[in-house]
Write a structure and sequence with these properties.
It comes from Ohtaekwangia kribbensis. InterPro entries: Cyclase_SnoaL-like, NTF2-like_dom_sf, SnoaL-like. Helix content is 24%, strand content 31%. It contains five helices and ten strands.
């Protein structure tokens, strides 16, 4: 199985099996719906998504109830659209081998975005985005990267603060971070870089870059000497909850077409911390659906 879509393969396969069982046994479905352990009527969108992701590890069938079986748009390019194409993929994962630890979950309107530490066919860090309609999940995007060792400053790809604050500043922070990405990463206006940070204070979780704004500058300079360039071409999504903002972009790193998911933490109107995953976008001839990565 190629490409980094095994998470979705397993997840949707589990959902198919559960959906089939529920369709055959309506009485059981009603029992699940009314069960005090499920509480679908009172669960938040974040709780539904976290439970759905955890079902990769546990095999729990109940989270199928959080998916709209008649409308599930897939943007993981290694997975066919909808749910129908995944039943045979369940056997790809050895029993009891998957581990899922969702470290961060945030909500922005009808969207939930998560930051998860996965272990399936090896450790991976992933961002997932789910879109809801009428309380059910109808669309999914993700970005996966193999888990790397701690960066030069000792930070992992997943550690750090996980709970949002400043909920009344969500839109303000989204605007700030979007402008940063547009100015610096899309348009290369490096003269504006320092204005987005509080002096040299900056915590970095990219596995190749150390802390501090000066550390970022040194890393970029070293890359340039090696002929490695990073260029963002387009921002596709900006989602936020309080002081956390996720930006989904596409561009090129070292000449390769990539999807960039960047999570920023804002503090007092300045960018204070950053996590990311970078995933290559395969040639269209390899796509399993026609919805596109974004």
């Amino acid at each position: 199985m190629n490409y980094k879509s095994k998470t979705l393969f397993v997840l949707v396969s589990l959902l198919l099996v559960a959906a089939s069982a529920i369709a055959q046994k309506k009485e059981r479905a009603q029992t699940v719906k009314n069960s005090p352990t499920v509480k679908t009527e009172t669960m938040t969108k974040k709780e539904k998504v976290v439970a759905l992701l955890k079902s990769i590890e546990t095999g729990a069938p109940e989270p199928v109830g959080y998916i709209n079986p008649n409308k599930y748009i897939q943007h993981n390019l290694g997975a066919a659209d909808g749910l129908a194409g995944f039943g045979a993929l369940l056997k790809a994962l050895p029993p009891n081998s998957a581990k899922v630890n969702t470290v961060r979950a945030f909500e922005d309107g009808e969207f939930v975005f998560t930051h998860t530490d996965y272990n399936f066919f090896g450790p991976k860090i992933g961002f997932d985005i789910f879109r809801f309609e009428n309380g059910l999940i109808v669309e999914h995007w993700d970005n996966l990267q193999e888990t790397a060792k701690p960066n030069p400053s000792g930070h992992t790809m997943i550690d750090g603060p996980a709970v949002s604050t400043d909920l009344n500043k969500t839109e303000e922070n989204k605007k700030l971070v979007k402008q940063f990405v547009e100015d610096i990463l899309v348009n290369g206006k490096m003269e504006k870089l320092a204005g987005y940070f509080n002096g040299d204070n900056y915590i970095q979780h990219n596995p190749l870059i150390p802390d501090q704004l000066s550390g970022l500058g040194k890393a970029l300079t070293e890359w340039a000497k090696q002929g490695i360039t990073m260029k963002y071409s387009k921002i596709h999504k900006v989602l936020g909850e309080g002081n956390f903002v996720l930006v989904v972009s596409e561009g090129h790193l070292a000449g390769q077409h990539n999807s960039f998911y960047d999570l920023f933490r804002v503090e007092n109107g300045k960018i204070a911390e950053h996590w990311d995953t970078i995933e290559p976008i395969p040639a269209q001839t390899e796509w399993k659906n026609n919805n596109g990565k974004f």
